[in-house]
Design brief:
The chain is mainly beta. The protein has a single domain, classed as Hemocyanin, Chain: A, domain 2 (Sandwich), CATH 2.60.310. It contains no helices and 9 strands. The strands form 3 sheets. It has a 4-stranded antiparallel sheet with strand order 1-7-4-5, with no helix packed on it. Strands 6-2-9 form a 3-stranded antiparallel sheet, with no helix packed on it. A two-stranded antiparallel ribbon has the order 3-8. Strand 4 and strand 5 form a beta hairpin.
Length: 123
């Protein structure tokens, strides 16, 4: 994902989610310097409610290494009052980079020296 691009990872909710802290793990491969905006979104039909939004800057590893870089953060967000069909969306957008593939979440998990992306919801 690079300049002006964004990707969404949807999850079909199954129940209410209480207000609290979301534990976000998104180890990633960084090809070029990039600023990434992350969003946690609750989508009901065509209405999006932003639960949390933040920005992080990333730099590539030295010597051309493409191993996963650890990234973990806790974000506080309000409760979700579940209705059938509701989605939880993890969205990320890139800016201030010259590469269309500057930021790549680590889909290889431990095979690339990191963890699989995951979000642990408040309980």
């Amino acid at each position: 994902m690079g300049p002006g691009g964004s990707l969404e990872a949807p999850y079909a909710l199954k129940a209410d989610v209480p207000a609290g802290t979301y534990h976000v793990i998104c180890d990633s491969i960084i090809i070029r310097a990039v600023d990434v905006q992350f969003e946690l979104i609750w989508r009901r039909d065509t209405t999006d409610t932003t639960l949390a939004i933040w920005m992080e800057s990333f730099e590539p590893l030295p010597n051309g290494s493409f191993k996963a870089q650890p990234y973990e953060i806790h974000q506080t967000a309000p409760a979700i009052d579940f209705q059938p069909g509701d989605l939880f969306i993890f969205k990320y957008s890139g800016s201030n980079t010259v590469s269309n593939q500057a930021f790549i979440p680590n889909g290889d998990g431990p095979n690339n020296g990191g963890r699989f992306p995951q979000i642990i919801l408040p309980q």
